[in-house]
Fold these 2 entries.
Entry 1:
Amino acid sequence: MTGRLIAIGDIHGCHREFEDLLDELELEKDDRLILLGDLVNRGPNSARVVELAREHATVSLLGNHELRLLNFRKTDDPTHLKKYDYETLDQLRGKDWDYLEAMPLTYEDLDTGTVFVHGGFVPDKPWQKQPARIVTRVQVIDRNGEPRKRSEAPDGTHWSELWQGPPFVVYGHTPGDDVSPTKWTLGLDTACCLGGSLTAYVLPEKRIVQIKAREKYYTPS
Ligand SMILES: [Mn+2]
């Protein structure tokens, strides 16, 4: 008997809600925990979230926030950064950076036919070959078929509405009031750092486990 496969959406530095969710899940030795990226920024303690990830996660996927910090570290170009990135840069230590640098873009589970990713995929192209700048960032597809953030193309169609599996895709990055299901996808970013909740999806039972945010940690500008 193999263990459970558990995915958790965008944690964004919300270390207490992450601890509460881990308590609730009662992980066992054979369980696999997949974090869907954007572990850092906006919430109170990004370093603690990375520490808990190192301890408990089977794998943490690359999010656009990690990608931005890593790009800054590579180039020293501050135009990559947003204001709250500086707080995270102060918090993270060597082994945290090693962990961020090792984050893959996707995780595939063949038994359930499920692929996990931070942002999503451009439909009608093989998911395996899509680059970091797309799979960590895509929210909608604009009228020219280009991947965009929702704010850049408000009349675009969410990529998940266009995705025809297999595989079934579990993703984060597009915050919502609750989980976003389609036939072939499930979105788990329930906006914890904005005062929403932190969500886990548990396979094979297809169960949702949620922890309500203790407070609103971040207000979009
Ligand atoms: Mn994101």
Entry 2:
Amino acid sequence: MIDIAVSKARRREVLDCVIVGAGPAGLTAALYLRRFHRNVRIIDAGASRAGRIPRANNIAGFPDGIAGTQLLQRMNRHLRQVDGYVVHGTVVRIEQGPDDLFAVSLADQQLWTRNVILCTGVVDRRPALPGFEDVAIAGLVRACPVCDGYELTGKCIGVIGDSMQGEREAAFLQHFSQDVRLIRIAGAHCELDVDSAAEARVHRLPGAAQHVAVSKDRKVFVTMDDGSGHRFDVLYTALGVDPCTQLVAALGARLDERGNLVTDSHCRTNVSNLYAAGDVVSALDQISVAVGHAAIAATTVHNSLLPKTA
Ligand SMILES: Cc1cc2nc3c(=O)[nH]c(=O)nc-3n(C[C@H](O)[C@H](O)[C@H](O)COP(=O)(O)OP(=O)(O)OC[C@H]3O[C@@H](n4cnc5c(N)ncnc54)[C@H](O)[C@@H]3O)c2cc1C
């Protein structure tokens, strides 16, 4: 089926590159490729993690941080200056034909391209904990210790975690505060050995959390299944993330043990002409890393399209 489609595509426009995802990674890749005068399309489903950051830290040149939505607006404006535009929609399928062209399908259109850069990010696992959304809306939930640890120096921190990753993140936060408690959720599957709390690197609250709420003085109040209550300045979720790699699973793209895409130093996956950048890649989930990947991927794509010298 794809063979017929590919031959039809020869009579259609073939793009230099399709970028899937317009978070910091995708927008940066598109900017670079437009500035290389490349024929590029960028498609986005509108759920960038960056859009959920109240104040993004660790971005050099922004000492007071910047709201994630504002950063995305700036990046979009920058892209428009070089005639790059985000197409709003969801890519539902990516297939590769025998001559390595990709067919990228949205609900209502199909694009043909020589290269794809996957910048689809990850989805954070949310705890099934009554009251959690109220605490999140109040701005008292954090999800990234690398991003916000510094701001929470000396604060009282509750970490929701049910696996060794939760314990690792809680241990990481102990560098910033001595007042860190690991909390598991009532009814949830728990990988931690709850009977060996004494051996844990971090202090675990006994029992499991049943409910969370915002107190009058804007603290997080956690009610445990034994009826006891605990107050925290902030709640961290350390439940892990799910990388958005479904689109390239059928292409045989290699994943690491956490489900992130494995790339080489040029951001190439093991599938020819398929690149990846940002959180979806096996690396540190940070904006500066995402834009770094994107710069490398876009420049490699551009170089691969230059006429070959003898
Ligand atoms: C609460 C929170 C706070 C954070 N704070 C910081 C911070 O202070 N500093 C920092 O450096 N980092 C921070 N991060 C991490 C930062 O948000 C990410 O590292 C960054 O957003 C990664 O960019 P990305 O482009 O890889 O992915 P994303 O920004 O997540 O963008 C991925 C995009 O791909 C789209 N997409 C996915 N699948 C498809 C599809 N099939 N078709 C079309 N589009 C698709 C999504 O809709 C989304 O818009 C924080 C994260 C969270 C959750």
